[in-house]
Amino acid sequence: MSKSVQVCLVSDMAPGQARHFDAAGRPVVLVRIGDEFHAMRDVCSHEEFPLSEGEVLTEECEIECARHGSTFDLITGAPCSLPATEPVAVYEVKVTGEEVWVILP
Length: 105
Description:
By secondary structure, this protein is mainly beta. The protein has one domain (about 5-105): Rieske Iron-sulfur Protein, CATH 2.102.10.10. Helix content is about 0%, strand content about 45%. The protein has no helices and 9 strands. The protein has strands at about 5-10, 20-25, 25-35, 35-40, 55, 60-65, 70-75, 90-95, 100-105. The strands form 2 sheets. It has a 6-stranded antiparallel β-sheet, with no helix packed on it. A hairpin with a 2-residue loop joins strand 2 (about 20-25) and strand 3. The chain is globular.
């Protein structure tokens, strides 16, 4: 059964921004690209480091780990560059009015 957690308001995040949220005890990085929001587990699969501290690559729809430079696809969670080889869990995001919700499995 999935659980919906409100993490912020649309106006709380600027386009191109990544922010860490604790969603029902899970570390989540929320990324805004334009008017779209993407959510994934806020832990690099290569080494336990917060992806929310990395750079958002808006053109590629990826986030880069600040520690080793691995990039991850924000839609699939797949690694796009080494040294990471394992994907990161992605979560569905729903925007209802001004509220941003993350759907956790």
